[in-house]
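Q: Here's a chain of 137 amino acids. Please give me its 3D structure as tokens.
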Amino acid sequence: MIVVDVTIIAYLLIAGEKTALAQAVYRKDPQWMVPHLWQHEFLNVLATYVRHGAGDLADGEKIWEQALTLLGGREQSINMHLALELATRHQVSGYDAQYAVLAFTLGVPCVSEDQRLQKTFPQFVLSMERFLSLPQD
């Protein structure tokens, strides 16, 4: 089990230069957990994707449905007080803090390409490459 942030979800479902890496992460551990926030963030990613002409509305809707299928039942509530504390203490966004709190609470890695988050919480926020380099459980 791992926590993934919205960029990893986007890399998996929207074809691009990091899709193969995200697919490898999914093959290594398909039990992806997310805070409820992911839907709001992913909707914004898809809206930007469509607005910039990378795909049309039908493409965006198809990707949205794929994401819901992939992550259905994998959403977890988090302690928002702890997220606020982490965000203010470590000067990260409230959004990023939610992924970190979920990983910390579940005792699992958080996979993210956000270098600031990796640097702030190196003990449990890992890049896709670093996660893939870990031995299989």
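Q: Can you summarize the key feature?
A: The chain has a mean pLDDT of 97.
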